[in-house]
Every structure is written in C-alpha cells, then in structure tokens.
Design a protein that fits this description.
Blueprint (H helix, E strand, L loop, with lengths): L1 E9 L5 E9 L4 E5 L6 H8 L6 E6 L2 E2 L5 H7 E4 L10 H6 L3 H4 L7 H13 L15 H15 L3 E4 L8 H16 L3 E6 L2 H7 L2 E6 L2 E6 L1 H4 L3 H8 L2 E4 L9 E4 L1
Parallel strand pairs: 3-8, 3-9, 6-7, 7-8
Antiparallel strand pairs: 1-2, 1-4, 4-5, 9-10, 11-12
Helix pairs in contact: 5-6
Amino acid sequence: MIKIRDLKISYSYGDAFTVEALDLEKGEVASIIGKNGCGKTTLLRTIAGLLPYEGSVTIDDTECRNMNVRDRAKKAAYLPQLIRPVSLDVQTLVEHGRYPWHGNNRRISDEDKVFIENALDITKMKEFQKRDLTELSGGQLRRAYLAMVIAQNADMILLDEPTTFMDIESQALFYEIAAELAAKGHGIIMTCHNIEQGFSYSDRIVLMEERCIRKTGTPKELVKEKKELRSIFGAAVKESEDKELLYQYILTK
C-alpha cells in the first residue's frame, strides 16, 4: 500500500505541487486523470522515488526516500510514458525486470525464468521474444516494456500513459492485463488522459487539477460529481447500459 501525507514538491518556476492525503491500495486499478500539465507524471515519478519531496510517501509503511534503489524497485515498478527502442531483443529486455532481485552478478535462475515467461505470455509478446526492439511497432514496443515491468513482480506497478501509441486492440489487451494483475494482488497506478477509459476500467479515480488533487473515489461515486468534472475537463461523464459501446462510461455535456 502507498500512503501519501502532506506531500510538497517545489518547481524551479515557483509553483508547488501538493497532496494532503492519498492512499493507493494493492488489488485495485487506480487512474490519475487530469489535463496535461496538472501534475500527473510528477506525482507518479515522486512515488517511484525519482523526485525529491517534502512530507511523507510510504510503501508498505517504509518511507520512500529511505529505501535504496533495489529495495524500492522490489516494491514499486515504474514505466515512463516516453520509451525509446534500443538495440536489444525483447527477451533480454524482459530479463532486465529481474535485476532488483539479483543484481548484476547472478545468472537468471529457474524462478526468474518463470516470471519472465509469464510476463511474455500475459502481454502476448512471446512470439516476438527474439525480435530486436528497433523492429517493433509503437504498440509492440510498449507491450515489451510492460512485460519487463511485470517480470519485476513488484507489489505496486506505476504506469505513465501506458496506452500511448497502442491501437484499440492493444489498449483493450492492456486493460485486461491490468485487471488480471490487480486480481492477483498487485496495485496498478496509471496516469490517463482518456476520461472514458479511466472511468470504465478503473476501481479508483484520482482527479487532478493545477498540481493538486480535487477528488478521489470510485467511478460510480465520481460520475455524480458533474459540476466538478465540467470544471476540470469541460465535460461530464455518465454510465451507459448499452452493451455495444466500447466504454461503459461516456462523455456528456
């Protein structure tokens, strides 16, 4: 579980990012939703231990700033939005996900192989495992990096705009994967700019605006906050019973 209390992050241009209190649980998919520039990525990178902060960010009751890199990586895996193809095959990339558990000086164990194979299977990347990353499409590349993160087997998985460059079929697969991982006890925390997707596939929503959190709750709770949603996004959301729609929640005026 991740607990944030009295968080403050200072920017060089003077404005501050603040979070009074936020709890993010294992076993659920949580989407951080807000306009570009509102602080979604800053919040995620802080939890991942990549930014200095005031206040408290704990993972399983241990202060994030007090963890070394490997111990923190065992607790929380982070996948940034911007990833680049390098000259590396998919199999080797996914093996990198096991680094926090054995470092540079240990060969891949049988236990590691189980996590690696599972990650390739769940992301449907096994057929590409010998393919160089530079030969993959944008969506395949993101699935390869997602497989690496899954192989890491951290309790909490932090994903910044994970469906970027994915086609509709790959996006649907991603949300299936997220639900499966949550059902197995992982906490999935992702930033999302697509309101319909966020509401339709998440257990918890975190609404952000101007570097602070406005509301948190389940989709069914926040769908009622139409005035708040219109204020933030210029549109509200409603739940639909039409089974032919791609998303359960759709945008309204």
